[in-house]
Each structure stands twice: as structure tokens, then as C-alpha cells.
């Protein structure tokens, strides 16, 4: 590993800041991945980067789990550090409305290495988050789709700062049961995922799926960027025009905020509990129907 320069030590180890507009990555628009300068852990991809005119590289998302937030001692700002080595990256800001995610990671150029690689482009991961009633059902369906790398049950869209199954089921936190999906956009696109979402549940029943009743069971798409909002609304409009449903679609399309992973026993619930009555009577028919309709996109 190349030793850090004096400036890199000042920023990465002593939590300093490089002068604005001085970094070589400020205006970088090439495709690739941004690594931690100190330990080479992947932090961001070029998909996350945007131009903010602030003088430092700006990102509105991160590679999952790569960046850790640490409140400054004065409580005024939130520092971001590499999750692997703890090296100082910069600070994170919310509420500026510079992108649909309303988030800006302000990162020192010297804290990163940029690697423009074909490998990064062919293994790109994107995210989608859907609420379609009980997450046991939704997870079982999305796990069938070719190109989906990971499906995790959890909670999203609530007013409370924390979420767990008991609290969410009370209906008082405003969270929805959701699945957080990691997918390869070279194998499956977001349009297909949205179509799968609508096929997997009834989007015309407000705060209800079958006998599951409550705001946590609402139909909702948590979009991760402006393009996902556009696609979701376009699919809804097409379904309206085609008169696929007798009643109006009540699906909410809103910006993704924060995902709270569900308790471990919820994940892979259908596969782990095939003899459970709910799995046999509710989930299995959904899975069978999905396989019939979406045979072409199923994982082999």
C-alpha cells in the first residue's frame, strides 16, 4: 500500500479538509468506482456522483455498508468515515434538495482513489424498494427473478426514528412492510421489477392485502431516484389506460428515505416455513401465479 502524503494524512487521519475546487475528482464524470485511499475499500460508484458546485466531490448514495456516519463533537454536522478503516471522508448533508434523494456526501478528493473499470460497469448493483402487503409474500416473489441479487424484508416510510415488527404492526409508526431489492440492471430493468410488483398484489385496496389490514400493508414504491419515479408513474398510467383493474390504483410513489432491516426470522420466511398455514394458503398461490405469468424472467 502506498504511504499517505502529508495532505492525505492531514485529511484522512487528522480529519482535515482539502481546499475547495482543488481536488482532481471534483469534476470527474467518468464511469467507475471510488475507493478509500487508505484501505482501498469500495465507497461509491459513478452512478452516485452528481455536480453540486460546492468544491468537493458530491454523492447522493453509497455502496451499501461502505460509509459510517459519526456526529461531530459540536453536534452541528455529521462526519462520514470509511466503514472498513475509519478514514475520514468528509461530511453528509440532508435537506438541500439537490437530487431526488435529498442527500449529499461531501467528500475530500484526497480521501479517495478513482478506478475506471469495465468490471465495475458489468457488475453494477442498483436498488429498488417495494411495499406490497406482507413482506413474506413479496420477498418470495422477488427472489424468483433473474438478475435479483438480494431481497431483504424490512420497514420503510415511517415517521418514527426506529422500526421493529411489533411497533410497525401497531400501525403507530407509519412504516410499511417492504422488500429492499438489490439487482443487476444488465439482467433485469426497473420496469420489469415494477411490473412484477403490480402482479404480486392488489394495488387497488388501500392499506390492505386480503386479510392483512393496516397502513403497514399499503401499496407503495419507494423510488431511489427521479428515473424510478418516472418509470413507476408511467407503468401506473399504462395500467390505468389498459383498464387492468376495475377499481383505481392507490399505489403510493414516494422518495426512498431509510430502510430498517426486519428481524432475522422474517427473512426467507416462505422457504424456511413451507408447512406453515399462511405460507400454504396465501404465499404459495401468489408464487405459483407469478411463475405462470413471468416465466421468461425467472431465475433458472
UniProtKB/TrEMBL annotation:
Keywords of the record, alphabetical order, are:
Multifunctional enzyme, Oxidoreductase
Judged by the first EC level, this protein's enzyme class is oxidoreductase
Q: Which residues are annotated as active site? A: 134
Q: Which NCBIfam families does the annotation name?
A: msrA (TIGR00401), PRK05508.1 (NF004036), PRK05550.1 (NF004042)
- Superkingdom of the source? Bacteria
InterPro entries tied to this protein: Met_Sox_Rdtase_MsrA_dom, Met_Sox_Rdtase_MsrA_sf, Met_Sox_Rdtase_MsrB_dom, Mss4-like_sf
MF terms in GO: L-methionine:thioredoxin-disulfide S-oxidoreductase activity; peptide-methionine (R)-S-oxide reductase activity; peptide-methionine (S)-S-oxide reductase activity
**Which species is listed as the source?**
Parashewanella curva
Q: What is this protein's record name?
A: Peptide methionine sulfoxide reductase MsrA
Homology family: Belongs to the MsrA Met sulfoxide reductase family.
Q: What is its EC number?
A: 1.8.4.11
Q: What does this protein do?
A: Has an important function as a repair enzyme for proteins that have been inactivated by oxidation. Catalyzes the reversible oxidation-reduction of methionine sulfoxide in proteins to methionine.
Name the encoding gene, please: msrA
State a single Pfam family of this protein: PMSR
Q: Which reaction does it catalyse?
A: L-methionyl-[protein] + [thioredoxin]-disulfide + H2O = L-methionyl-(S)-S-oxide-[protein] + [thioredoxin]-dithiol; L-methionyl-[protein] + [thioredoxin]-disulfide + H2O = L-methionyl-(R)-S-oxide-[protein] + [thioredoxin]-dithiol; [thioredoxin]-disulfide + L-methionine + H2O = L-methionine (S)-S-oxide + [thioredoxin]-dithiol
Residue ranges annotated for the MsrB domain, each copy included: 1-117
Amino acid at each position: 500500500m502506498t504511504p499517505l502524503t502529508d495532505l492525505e494524512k492531514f485529511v484522512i487521519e487528522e480529519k482535515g479538509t482539502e481546499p475547495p475546487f482543488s481536488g482532481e475528482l471534483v469534476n470527474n464524470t467518468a464511469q467507475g468506482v471510488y475507493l478509500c485511499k487508505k484501505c482501498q475499500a469500495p465507497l461509491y460508484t459513478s452512478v452516485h456522483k452528481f455536480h453540486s458546485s460546492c468544491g468537493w466531490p458530491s454523492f447522493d448514495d453509497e455502496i451499501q455498508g461502505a460509509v459510517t456516519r459519526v456526529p461531530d463533537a459540536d453536534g452541528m454536522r455529521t462526519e462520514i468515515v470509511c466503514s472498513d478503516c475509519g478514514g475520514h471522508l468528509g461530511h453528509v448533508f440532508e435537506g438541500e434538495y439537490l437530487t431526488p434523494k435529498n442527500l449529499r456526501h461531501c467528500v475530500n478528493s484526497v480521501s479517495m482513489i478513482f478506478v475506471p473499470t469495465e468490471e465495475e460497469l458489468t457488475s453494477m448493483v442498483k436498488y429498488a424498494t417495494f411495499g406490497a402487503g406482507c413482506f413474506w409474500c413479496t420477498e418470495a416473489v422477488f427472489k424468483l427473478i433473474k438478475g435479483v441479487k438480494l431481497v431483504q424484508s424490512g420497514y420503510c416510510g415511517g415517521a418514527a426514528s426506529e422500526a421493529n415488527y411489533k411497533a410497525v404492526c401497531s400501525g403507530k409508526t407509519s412504516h410499511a412492510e417492504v422488500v429492499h431489492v438489490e439487482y443487476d440492471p444488465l439482467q433485469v430493468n426497473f420496469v420489469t421489477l415494477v411490473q412484477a410488483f403490480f402482479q404480486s398484489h392488489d394495488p387497488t385496496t388501500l392499506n390492505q392485502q386480503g386479510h392483512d389490514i393496516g397502513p403497514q400493508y399499503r401499496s407503495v414504491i419507494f423510488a431511489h431516484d427521479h428515473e424510478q419515479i418516472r418509470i413507476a408513474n408511467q407503468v401506473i398510467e399504462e395500467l390505468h389506460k389498459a383498464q387492468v383493474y376495475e377499481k383505481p390504483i392507490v399505489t403510493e410513489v414516494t422518495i426512498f428515505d431509510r430502510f430498517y432491516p426486519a428481524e432475522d426470522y422474517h427473512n426467507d420466511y416462505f422457504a424456511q416455513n413451507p408447512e406453515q398455514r399462511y405460507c400454504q394458503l396465501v404465499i404459495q398461490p401468489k408464487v405459483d401465479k407469478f411463475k405462470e405469468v413471468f416465466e421468461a424472467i425467472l431465475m433458472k
